[in-house]
């Protein structure tokens, strides 16, 4: 039998049914054979009862006793084999139930592992997006810092050139204050992006830890499943 045939419950049911039928036919044939032998010996005994000597009668009686004892031994042996077959069927049924339970557990853990893997991929993508946005914000802040330095230098040059240009200085100052407010706003947004990035990295670390635990659990369940399948194969061969 192939491994696939052994794992098929329909094939196993047919095998057990064939074994029971063969066993029943074997017992019936043995009983019919020995019944016919006993009947033949009885007929021989009746036919030779008048003509046979006492020694012959003793031999015939001893032969009948031996045949009766052997017939009883065969019947007892058949009963023992029947009990052993029933016990083997019960053991095979228990192993099949355990095998089905382990297969369901492995399927559940695999589904959970796939779900967590998908979540991990989504978190990884979000992390990359956050890092990209963080780099863009950093570049914007750098450009604003450069612009701020340029405005400061221009403001200092304008202040040195003319003390009477109050209007221009006020405009420059207003522009400077606006740019400074924008810089502070971007700095706060940059801090929020950093907090979001740290949170996402923590979630990704937790997901990777859970994936590692699930991998170890799946390996353990697959090892148990292989052990049960090996035991089941040994029982079927026995």
TrEMBL record:
Taxonomic superkingdom: Eukaryota
Keyword Coiled coil recorded: yes
Cellular component GO terms, alphabetical: centriole
Coiled coil, from the record: 78-231
Keyword tags: Coiled coil
Tagged with keyword Nucleus: no
Record protein name field: MPP9 phase
């Amino acid at each position: 039998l192939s491994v696939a045939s052994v794992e098929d419950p329909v094939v196993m049911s047919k095998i057990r049914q064939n074994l029971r039928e063969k066993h029943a036919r074997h017992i019936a044939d043995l009983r019919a054979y020995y019944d016919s032998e006993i009947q033949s010996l009885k007929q021989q005994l009746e036919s030779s009862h008048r003509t046979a000597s006492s020694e012959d009668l003793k031999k015939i009686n001893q032969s009948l006793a031996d045949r009766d004892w052997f017939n009883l031994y065969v019947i007892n042996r058949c009963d023992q084999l029947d009990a052993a077959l029933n016990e083997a069927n019960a053991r095979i049924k228990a192993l099949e139930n355990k095998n089905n339970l382990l297969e369901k557990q492995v399927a559940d853990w695999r589904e959970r592992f796939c779900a967590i893997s998908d979540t991990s991929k989504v978190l990884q993508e979000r992390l990359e997006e956050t890092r990209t946005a963080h780099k863009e914000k950093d570049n914007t802040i750098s450009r604003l810092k450069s612009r701020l330095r340029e405005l400061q230098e221009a403001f200092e040059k304008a202040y040195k050139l003319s003390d009477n240009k109050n209007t221009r200085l006020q405009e420059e100052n207003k522009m400077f204050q606006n740019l400074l407010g924008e810089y502070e706003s971007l700095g706060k947004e940059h801090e929020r992006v950093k907090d979001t990035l740290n949170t996402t990295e923590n979630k990704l670390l937790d997901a990777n830890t859970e994936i590692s635990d699930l991998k170890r659990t799946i390996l353990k369940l697959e090892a148990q499943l292989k052990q049960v399948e090996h035991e089941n194969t040994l029982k079927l061969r026995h």
